[in-house]
Structure formats: structure tokens, C-alpha cells
Amino acid sequence: MLTLPFIVLTLLATAAVPSQASEKLSELSKDDSQWVMPAKNYASTRYSGLDQITTENVDELEVAWTYSTGLVAGHEAAPIVVGETMYVVTPWPNKLIALDITDGSKRWVYEPKPARAAQGVACCDVVNRGAAYAEGKIFFNTLDNHTVAVDAETGKEIWKTKLGEINRGETMTMAPLVVKDKVLVGNSGGEMGVRGWLTALDTTTGEIAWRAYSTGPDEDVLIGEGFDPFYAKDQGTDLGVETWPAGRWQTGGGTVWGWISYDPELDLIYHGTGNPGPWNHTQRPGDNKWTVSLFARDPDTGMAKWAYQIDAHDLFDYDGINESVLLDLEIDGKPRKVMVRPERNGHMYVMDRATGEVLSAEEYGFITVTKGINLDTGKPIEVEAKVPEVGKVTREICPAPPGAKDWQPSAWSEKTRLLYVPHQNLCMDMAIAETSYIAGTPFVGAEVEMYAGPGGQRGRFMAWDPETGEEVWNIKERFPVWSGTVVTAGNVVFYGTMDRWFKAVDASTGELLWKHRVGSGIIGQPVTYKGPDGRQYVAIFAGVGGWSGAVVSGQLDPSVPFGALGFVGAMQDLPQFTEPGGTLYVFALP
Amino acid sequence: MLTLPFIVLTLLATAAVPSQASEKLSELSKDDSQWVMPAKNYASTRYSGLDQITTENVDELEVAWTYSTGLVAGHEAAPIVVGETMYVVTPWPNKLIALDITDGSKRWVYEPKPARAAQGVACCDVVNRGAAYAEGKIFFNTLDNHTVAVDAETGKEIWKTKLGEINRGETMTMAPLVVKDKVLVGNSGGEMGVRGWLTALDTTTGEIAWRAYSTGPDEDVLIGEGFDPFYAKDQGTDLGVETWPAGRWQTGGGTVWGWISYDPELDLIYHGTGNPGPWNHTQRPGDNKWTVSLFARDPDTGMAKWAYQIDAHDLFDYDGINESVLLDLEIDGKPRKVMVRPERNGHMYVMDRATGEVLSAEEYGFITVTKGINLDTGKPIEVEAKVPEVGKVTREICPAPPGAKDWQPSAWSEKTRLLYVPHQNLCMDMAIAETSYIAGTPFVGAEVEMYAGPGGQRGRFMAWDPETGEEVWNIKERFPVWSGTVVTAGNVVFYGTMDRWFKAVDASTGELLWKHRVGSGIIGQPVTYKGPDGRQYVAIFAGVGGWSGAVVSGQLDPSVPFGALGFVGAMQDLPQFTEPGGTLYVFALP
Ligand SMILES: O=C(O)c1cc(C(=O)O)c2c(n1)C(=O)C(=O)c1cc(C(=O)O)[nH]c1-2
Ligand SMILES: O=C(O)c1cc(C(=O)O)c2c(n1)C(=O)C(=O)c1cc(C(=O)O)[nH]c1-2
Asked: Which of A365, A576, B447, B564 is found 20 to 30 A from B532 (Cα to Cα)?
């Protein structure tokens, strides 16, 4: 029989001892008057306890102030709010703008002046998803592969660290996560044959603490002693080398351009990896580990606790970088510590976040390429007829490369216990062809034409119950719902559309309660906070673009459907609805 | 004694017979639910009889919808409203955008695709001041010197006429005025030594009906038999040649880039001309007619009825292109048909619009360069010490080149009988030097540094009583008030500031009633209209730029004060308040 002192000792020895910094961030993230990281909190729930704006009064919401960035690329960043200051990061040239949260006056702007050439190697518009706060500093990434720390008060640069090479096709678009004394950042460039990585920098000095590659030998992937994947398919040595044709892992993609979550108790961070390169899968026989995979890692060392490859040998650009929402759910009558992932491949994964076991993986989107996930093996059941072959056009591949959901993050309500998921309904025809790797140029080998999936509506916004594995309600939209979302204790969910509406719906029923016509299509992430004046505010960037909106922000010819890696075909009518142009909108009750 | 039939005959023979088109436009301009020309009506009062928004409820105003243009140059255009459609012209590339007036959805966009090179020869940002409506067509100018007629319903081009040459430094930025079957347009390029003109095109065919040059022989200036200037100084033959050193009139400026008014009863149009080139006045001894002059012309033939040179031999770039507000006032106890002009040189001219007589010319801005206007001669009384000399810096020249007021138009209230004048308070130091004319390049010969005038506030908004010749109230602003203004029967005046406020003040007292923080500084022109939903709307472009905002929209170095022809020196702090970015804001009561 264990004595009490022993249990305590065990906990101290093996479990999390969150550092002061993380504890402070955890605390800060509970203060609903602020919004200190894009995902709101380490669990990435994007839920706010504010309840001044309710289902009853939300239709009185009005514009409190706006701020124009003067930039026309897609505006994806979540504003963050610390104290009485809001921080927004623009698309390239990645200005960091500090604004007064109540009257929108400009405090300062920090301009990192990233290389112009970076614009030429970004796959999907020159976007940025936001900044992170810790210890009086704002951290963010520049398109030309620098992570920067800026004094939150003065706007002065504290450090700036170069992490990648645009000449190799690398860029950075993701929002960092700060865990303890480290800021975690990853690269982009899966369509240019870069080698993906996640890197931790020291928050104080900007020095690189560790880097975990997504491909290559275990040493590089930071797989070592404690590595304990749940499924047999993910077990073995140097799989990041062995599952590739000789040397191909070096240009194999697996970038880390999406979201990271953190569980302070388990002391594990969670992140996914992007697609393998090239898209033409015949050039890379094998599982192509660790692309389209999930990792649980020790934030101090980067060492992997477990990994799970979502799709081995990806055929369709189904990056595994979507958000992991960390929840305590009742699954089959038992309380479980899970992570819920609305996966790009169209399945809603509910996983044990301690072990990497898949508890369920229901379909939430229209899928033709698989017949479900085998929970015993952890593998999707592939539909042979949909495997692309060279010299052939494979039709009705669903979902299309952006998946049933792309990077645009979901929100979880503590009140309704539902997950709110902005996503899309797209299929494609695909032809693949031999391509060769030339550093810093596209490494794709596929021609794709996308179009609306069944029903013809390209966008969907749904409420999903991860405990029952069922959709509770959904709303259809003309265009992909490419914005993030936020849900509040007032039982209101906010999201934006590419045809210029910012909408509030009832979290329980999905009923549309209010909509406001903004200046440009929305692909930003809404946040909410409370001002020193006691009012609840809701903030969102308008400014269409991103991969889905590239036809507008990149001024592409709408009549060439193969543009933007095939996305133009599905968005030919978008220019009829919106021009580009970044403006931050902040709403409040009168 | 005259018999009645004789009088009638005389009227028919000599006075106005407004064509159907102008009558219809006159009628349309009285319908306050629409706003069919930038100046609202031929008298250019910019007054609306709408009174739903009042001094009592204006503080409840909220954003109904916004529209982003995705462009970062200065947005100066007045939206026009015809039926249920709003038409806005953007800065270069001069898109014409048609929007639903109640929900802001996009109807269509017409893109004239003006030459890129036009941007390089525009003096003061690549602005456009708006479109004009008549007979189912929208007319506007492109920066590369085309006037275009577009079907108001479909957005299809009806005709497009080339009027000038960017290679010679010509551009077009002004809003046309339609009078009867003619659309009246003028050129820009006074700082490039172009030869100014006003041109009439046939509204149906786009063919040039007449062109009146501002310099050169009477034949070119359209001075002939009926020409009857009031003052001796303006009488004589071929003064547009004789008042110049040999041949210099050909590169002498006098562009017509501002406002035109029309009196249907007198059947006269009124327009001014710009500064002479180069700024270095020692290179052009003489009066330099007809630069900085006013013309009353027959709209059918272009022939001048009278002319009045405001400033002979201009020294300071005091273009005479500001708005002429046509009013029936009581002057010295007698009803007079006047035009009121808040002149760039700082004087408020009240003139008999039938004869060109100056009835009064009170100072409304701070002036060091003249000691009033001699009403007998019609000439300003010059201060010798302020006449610039080569090799010397002349200091404290007030007003600076943008004048006490630039192009930003005033509004007149029928109710208060006050004129509302957005303007600025700037002085300068000036050094002049020899320059030579090279076609399509700056022809200035002056280095200028501008700074705030007395009191330090660079902007002013005032109410002026033209009957008493006195200011009634004024508001000081940090930056030049570079926006237009509108006044309503609700007794509310609206204007915008370069530091991102859209303001409503009490027309009687100037009391600030409401302000709204917009996304970028305002240099646009507000208008108001009524939607089919019965609500009164107020619309205004935000999007800083223009000459005053070039430091932001042109991304000039704020530490180089001589930038933008010396305006940067007075606007070094503007980048701390705003980024550029064009967004149309439309407000209404809840
Ligand atoms: O593989 C990569 O490195 C990578 C990078 C990015 C990016 O950084 O924006 C996107 C994608 N892939 C991608 O597959 C994708 O669907 C996508 C959408 C967007 C966007 O911002 O709208 N970026 C990206
Ligand atoms: O002489 C000319 O031809 C000319 C043209 C323009 C123009 O077309 O914008 C301006 C001026 N001059 C000018 O003197 C001036 O103050 C000015 C201000 C602005 C503006 O849009 O803010 N344009 C112009």
C-alpha cells in the first residue's frame, strides 16, 4: 500500500512543475478582460467567460472603432490584448501595431522590415496568424524566418533570431506559443520541399534551445528514450529516414505552420506536421514519416513523448497542423483527458492526450477518399479508386487539398460543451506528374481543380458534440468559412465570412442573431476582451486573402482555375463580393 | 416703355434656356434621398434637407456598413448616390465601384486600367475627387487623362475619351460636372509646367465640344465678343500671351483641377485656374494670365463672360481652384446673386456672380504676405518683404502653398445661413532657384519647408457668415482638416480629421456632438442620403493621403521635411496616428 508522502514525491518527480512564466501565462489566460495568446489559453478553447454580450442583446452590437493597416494581403492574425493594449501583426511586411483597446488610438508600430523576396516563396498568400505575449514581451514571426521579441510597453526590439532560409523556400506564418521560458515556432514551405521543424527559443535571449525536425533520423526528430507511440505503425527507429526513398526526407516537407497546445499538468506540448512533398505521391513511396503527424513533446527539451501519423503517405496535401483542443471529456462514461482535432482529412479525432490513442474519429465533412479510421491500427481505410496515378485525372476527390477544415481554428464552450468549427466543403479533380526539386521553387507535381462539394455551398460552420461524436447544428455559407471563431459565456459564437459578414449566432441553436457588413471578406480570428471602461469588446480583422482568397488578394485571373494551386477554380466569383484591404473592427454594445 | 412681350423675347434670346438634361439634374439634386453630384447641387452648397439625424440623436449614430477598396493612396472622392446605388471612384487605378446603398453589397466594378506611369507625374498623391451622374451614365476622370462614361445600371463602358498626355506631365484628378449635354473636365499638372485647360465633352458621344485653355491667345482661352471683365486689370487682348515672357505661357500652368459651379438662370459656369509654373516667380515676370483666375463661361460654347485674376503673378502656389458657392445673399441691405469663395490666399471672396465684382474679401486665415484686397482695383496689397528672391530664404510666409484652404470643399446651410469651411493653418520658409522645363518632370524651382501657423494647431474648421464677413465659431484640429464637409437640415455638420475621427458638430454652435474613430485618416468628402428603408445615411471615405497625407500614403521619410514639395515638414508626426487604407464608412441611426 502506498503511503501518502510517496505519492506526493512521485508527482514531484515525474509530473509537471510549471515554471513561474507558464504559471503566470496560465493565470493571465484565465483573465477574460485580456486575450494573451491567439488560442486564448493553453488548451486552445478560444472560450471567453465574458457575458455582457448575450443572445438577447447581441443585435445591438455596433462598431466601436476600426483600424486600417494599409495592406492588402490576407489578414489572419488574432489580435492579442494585454492590459489596455492590443497587439496585431499584419501580413508581410509583418508590422506589429500596438493600439489602445478602448479608443483604437495608435500607440506604436514596430517594423521588422522582412525581405521582399519572402513574398515570392510563400505558398498561400503572405499571411501571419498573430503574436504571443509573455513577461512583458510580444513574440511573433516574420515571413522571412525571423522570430522577434519586442518590448510590450515601448515597441523596442529586444531580440531577433533568424531561423530559416527563404532561398530554400522557407517562410514563417504561424503564431508562436510561449511555454515557460521558451517560445515555440515552426516553419512553412511544404509546397517548396523544405524540411519541416519546430524550434524553441529562449524568451530572454532569443537563443535556440532546441529544434525538432519532422523528418530524418530520430536524433533530429528528437525521438529518444521516452518515446512511446500508441500504435505499432508509429513504432520503430529512424522512421523519418526509413519510410522515404533514399535522401528524400531532406526535401520532404512536414512543416509546422499551424497550432500548438500545452498541457501544464502533463507538461506536454502538442503540435502537428504538414504534408509531404511533392504532392505527387509516386515520387515518395513509403509512409513519409513524420509528415501529417501529431507529436506530444516535452517543452523543455523538445523530446517526443508520443507521435501519431494521421495519414501515412499523404496523397492530397492533408496537412496535420490544425488546432488540438485539450479537454476533459466523458467518453464512454469515463472522464478522459483528451485532445479534440477537427482534422483536415475530414475526421474529428478525439485522442487520449497522454498516450496518443485515438478514441474516436467520426466524419464531419464529406469524404470520398477513405472509409473511416480503423481504431485498432490507427490507420484510415483508403479508397483505392481515389489514389492518383500519373497520366490520369482522378475525379471527385473529397475533401480537396484544403481539407474539410484548414488552419482556421475552432472554439469550445464550457457552457454548451460543444465545439464550434468553421470549415469548408470542397472537392477536386487531380492530375499528378513528375517534378524535380529545385531549392526555393514549388515542389508539387500536381495540377488540381477545386469545386464545391455536395450541396454547392462551399462553407460550413457547425457545432459538434465530441462526447457523442455528432453534429448538433450547422450553417451553410457561400464561401469557405476561413475565419476563426470565439464563443462566450453570453452563449454567443462569432465568425466571419469571405463575403463580408461578421456574424453572431446562438451557441445552443445556431440561430443567426446579428450580422454586420464589413469592408472586406473575413479570414481573421475573432477575440473578445473587457476594456477599462467595463465594456465587453469583440475584435476581428477583415481583409480577405489567404489560400482561399488569393484570387482577390493576389489579383489572380479568376478565369484560370489552376491558379493558387487549384483554389481559384473554386473561388471564381469571390471578386464579385469583395476587394482586399486589412481593417481591424472592434465592436461593443452602445 | 417696354411692353411685356418684348421683355419675354429678350429673356428668350439672351438668358438661360436650360436643356432638359440640366433641368433634370437640377431636379434630381433637390431630391435629398440622392446625391447625384459631388457638390450636391449646381450651387455647390453640399447642404441636405434631411433631418432624421439631429443634434439630439446624432450621438447614437453607428456604422451601418463599410467597404474596403484595397488601395492605399489618398481617398478624396465624394460618393454619389443615384436611386439605390452608390458610386465611388478610387484613387489610381481609378476603379468605379457600384454598391447597394443600404447593405453595402457590391453591384459591379468598372476598371479603366489607367497607365501605371500616370502615378509618377501626379503632384499630390494619385487621388480622384469623384464621379458625376446624368442620363443613366456615370462620368469620371482617370489619372492618365481619360474621361469615361459608364452605364449606371450595368457598369459597362459607353465611351472613353483621351484628353491629355502623361508624357507632358498631365493628369486628371477632379470630379466632372455635367451641364446640359456636356461633361466638364479639367487637367492637373501645374507643378510639371503643363498648360491648363477646361474641356467640355458631349455626354452622349464623348466627343470634345470645346476646350478653354488658361493661358495663350484669347482664341485658345475662349475669350471673344461677350467678354466683360469687371476690373481694368483684367481687360485687354491676348493677356494670356502678353503677361508672360515670350512663349512661357505654353508651360505656364493654370490647371483646372478643382471645382465648377453652374447657375442655370444666368446660364454660366464658374471655375478657377491653378498656379503658374514654375513656382520661382523670377522666371516669369508679368501677371501670368490667366493663372490663379476665375472664369464665368457659357457652358454651351465655353466662351468667357468675365474673368477675374485673383492673384496676378502668383508667388506662393495659391491655386484659384477652390469651390464657388452660389448664393443669394443680402449684402449691404440689398439682395445679391453672389458666389462665395474661401480662397487659397486666405481671403473669403464674396463676388457678384453676374459681373465678377468683388463685394468683399475678408481674411479668414492668418496672412503675412498681403494686407487685404483693394476692392477698387480688385488687387491684393502685397507685402514687399515677403516676395521671394533667388539666393535668399524668405521666412514666415503665411499661408503656405496649400493656402488657408485647399481643394477640400465647404458647405452652406440654408438654415443657419453659415458657410462651414474645413481648412488649415500653415506657414512656410521658401527658397527659390532657377529651374528649366523638361516635359513630364517637375517645374518648380523652389524649396519649401512648411510648419504650423500661429497657435500651433494645423487644422481649423469654422463657421463663417458671408453676409457679415465674420467668423461665427471655429474648432482647432491637430492636423489640417483635409476632408470635405456636409451640413443638414438636422443642423448637424460632419467632417473628418487626419487623425482618424469622423465628427458631427452643432451647426449653430460648433459644439462637438459625436465622433467616431475610423480606420485611417479622413480626406474624403461626406455625403448624406436616404435609403429605401427610410433611414438617413451619412457616407465618407477614410484613407489618408493627398498632398497633406503623402508622408503616409506615399511612405515618405518623415525626417526629410522637403518631401512632398515641403508638406512633409509640417506632417512629420502623422505616421504616429494612422496608416493608409481606403474604406468607405456608412453611418445611420440604430
Ligand atoms: O505546407 C506548408 O508549409 C503550408 C504553409 C501554409 C502557410 O504557411 O500559410 C499553408 C499550407 N501549407 C496549406 O497547406 C494550406 O492549406 C494553407 C492555407 C493557408 C492560409 O493562410 O490560408 N496557409 C496554408
Ligand atoms: O497645379 C496643379 O495641377 C495641382 C493639381 C493637384 C491635384 O490634381 O491633385 C493639386 C495641386 N495642384 C495643388 O496645388 C494642391 O494643393 C493639391 C492638393 C491636392 C490633394 O489632393 O491633396 N492636390 C493638389
From this structure: A576
